Input
Amino acid sequence: MLATLPRATPRAARRLTTAHALRSPLAPSYNHTIRPALAPPYNHPLAHVPEADRLKAPYAFSMLKEHFSERTGPTRTEFVAGLLETKEGREWVQAAWDSALKELAEQPAATEVSFQGLGEYLADPASAKALQVGGSVVIRDVLRDPVAEAWASELTETLVSRANSPTYYTSAQIAARADPSVLSATGQTLKAFLPTSTPEGAFIRIDAATVAPDQPTWASKDLWALDESASPATPVHAHLALARTDVKVPTSCAAATYALLRPFFSPKKSRISFYLPTGYTDESNWVMRAPGAKPDLEADLVHVQPTTVSLAPGDVLVTHAGLRLQAADASGLLLPVHPLPATEGNRAYVALQRASFEAGLPPPHIPADGSPIALEDGGNVTMIESWGGRRALGYGF
Output
């Protein structure tokens, strides 16, 4: 017997049934009387949100159209390359190199002195002469630890909020640069290193705090020469420790000359050619590079034996500007407080530096390379408490 199959639904009935079955809230017609909260138009009034609770960007980026820039002199490499273009210059370079190697044979211990005893120490002519030969001094306890640590905490919080973008004008940085003890320590040692400088107080070059000391900037034939017209010109660098940090410091001023000329000299034989390491560093194994040869800017200072100095919060390290310092750890925080002798060139520079401070722009020696920078709030003289600090940062002269 044949099974009885159900009869197919008529086509029209199927169409009606299908249309009825697929009718859903998302099917035409789009008759949505309830509009979701995130559907357009986005009409979310914020008038009821308190100003203090609104999200704000901690800083703003900007492409600098105007910048209080300062034209700087030749770089260290350009300075030496220019000397090598003449016979007299090449003779000086060779003689300076030979002299530096001889002096580096003796590298004394780092000089340390307490801030309270600094004046008495520098009053001795022999001490001042020893500083010029050594090229560095550690001044202990210029500030009390809690003061420096509080500034470090404030500065660290600011850097975190700015995603580590450089900052120059926080209240902690301004207070540190204007502190009378910091000004006294850097000013006294500047006069000891440069006895011929003007008796007028020094200015201070503004820089961002960092975990590593500043790169060397000195470029001159004379270790303690001072160009009256150049700016910002100083053969002295100073760093204030805001947190405990270790720094590798050369203890001979000849290391400044050596670091200046090292990229232009190379060994005749490699290290493995000698049984004793003294053979590799011997003066006879080193020769000036051929004319036109590319200088080795990353060359190791193999003749320099730096001393690791542990800086506590509130200590100040003063060195010759040509010494290549290195951070021995990455946990410290150093604020450059480089003293600028009161020359005409530096006086003009500090006026530009003051204008940058008031506009919230980077200092004039920071190049505006076209990349976006993080702006800061503009400052004014009322933010600087001490009279000496106001003058050091460009006010009152």
